[in-house]
Design brief:
By secondary structure, this protein is α+β, with helices and mostly antiparallel strands. The protein has one domain. About 35% of the residues lie in helices and about 20% in strands. It has 5 helices and 10 strands; from the N terminus they run H-H-H-E-E-H-E-E-E-E-H-E-E-E-E. The strands form 3 sheets. The chain has a 5-stranded antiparallel β-sheet, with helices on one face. It has a 3-stranded antiparallel β-sheet with strand order 2-8-7. The chain has a two-stranded antiparallel sheet with strand order 3-6. The longest helix has 17 residues. The protein is globular and about 45 Å long. The N and C termini lie far apart (about 85 Å).
Amino acid sequence: MVAMKLATIVVLATVAVAAPTTAVTTTDEAKPFSFSQWVADIMNPDVVALTPEQAVEAYYQSINATASTHDGAVKAKRFNRICWTDPNSTERRAKVDDAIKCVNSLAALGSTHYNIDYEQSIELCRDTPGARLVVGPGYPAGGAEATADKLAVAAGKIMDGCTWGGTTGGNIFEEWSPWLCITLERK
């Protein structure tokens, strides 16, 4: 009987050691700052959105808290956009501070309507130093329409995936108008 108790103790000890431990997770994990969510907040009358200066600060704080998620290569795959990562294209990348001012000015225009004709591009954020949004046909498919608020969200999505090293830049084709190429770049 003593031998049986010893065998039982050995089995129980083995099970206790082999049992998996439960991982402790927290809900306070840092998340990357989202420029597209910031734009949505600007356009939502029920939300007090960050100012452009506060958005820049929140972005940089987010980088410090989530450094491993801001590597560009991983985020370039989100939102169907193309980021400028080639060393030869770095001169096209705008400073984050300038791009945020451009996006903010577009969001402030709300539902301002733009018609983009075939073989024609329009340049937005002309009064914003250092950054511009160029909207034009990506394919020869005729004209297209866009509103400033949709373009601001698209620019925010570009920034969400194409921002690192204090600069941003790239282009995107949105589902609401897949024939338009929306490009955020340095002036």
